[in-house]
Amino acid sequence: MQYLLELINSMVQNPQASQTIFVIITATAAFACVLSVGYLITAFSDPAKKRLSAIVQDKQTPDGPSVGDDFFKQVMGTAASALLPSNQAEKSRIQKHLIIAGYRNSNAVTNFYAYKTILAVGLPLAVIMLARLSPEISPQNVIVAALIAFSAGVMAPNYILKKIMAKRQRKLKAGFPDALDLLVVCVESGLGLTSAIARVAQELNITHPELAADLALINKEIMVGVPRSDAFRNLSERTGLSEIKGLATLLDQSMRFGTSVADALRTYAEEFRDKRMQAAEEAAAKISTKLIFPLTMFIWPSFFVIAIGPAILQVIEAFK
């Protein structure tokens, strides 16, 4: 408290105004703390929630979540319920990114914003607490560091989510050629499309588990009554890959117009191989251009030092 009062006083340079600001901040923090505790007590003591929790616990398997996990989820939901974006488009965008990244539970968006809130509040507080261990740091530098920590806490979850999403998409893209070839083989051998997808998901369960899980989810959706075209469309939305979106569109058109699925898959597989070859050739053609920067910054200076350095030393020695 004394450190916070001294920090405010160093910024305002007025003892009376500093005390007023300190009282306002303390009263606001106390009110927020009491309100949060009351909200937590109300949320945990709700009879409907208790009844639903009891029903869920009765239906849980031995491998299900523990009581500590349920408490953690409730705390996360309580912390982020008031901080969810009011803009539905922003919320839908984050939900789509979480689905592509593999987080598909019902409270994924709430947990994401809860972690974001904890980092945005916890990092500046950590900076202020660590600043007390170094009294020589000026209050202005502490405020700047706290603002930087706040910005990092706000932006870090989005950055990490994008990295996880890109990593999972790379894994799905790496396993898609094998899945497509296996799907062509299964369909040409006489299996139906649904049975072929189930077989491919079974075969890819070890080498490409992410893609196998998404393919197995298609059969589960079809079994519960989702139309096949909608199931393939959901697959493209879950993965976010243009290749899978093209495959879903191709299968939808084949089933709609009654054309041969095997011929369509074979044609798409050949086109996909051509696209992969073109992408590899394009990447190989860019290597010469990309090598200019390391050559200019690292290799050429070292070459000039080795080739011209002894001559320069001899010239300097001669002029002495």
Overview of this protein structure:
With 320 residues, the protein is mainly alpha-helical. The protein has a domain at 168-285. It has helices at 2-12, 15-44, 47-59, 67-81, 88-101, 108-131, 139-188, 193-203, 209-223, 228-239, 242-257, 261-285, 287-290, 292-319. It is flat and about 85 Å long. 13% of the residues are buried. The model is unreliable at 56-72 (pLDDT under 50).
Give the amount of beta strand, in percent.
under 5%
**Main sheet attributes: strand count, strand direction, barrel closure:** none
Spans of 5+ residues with little confidence (pLDDT < 50)?
56-72
Q: Return the average pLDDT rounded to an integer.
A: 77
Quickly give the structural class. mainly alpha
Number of helices: 14
In N-to-C order, the SSE pattern is HHHHHHHHHHHHHH
Give the helix level as a range of percent. over 70%
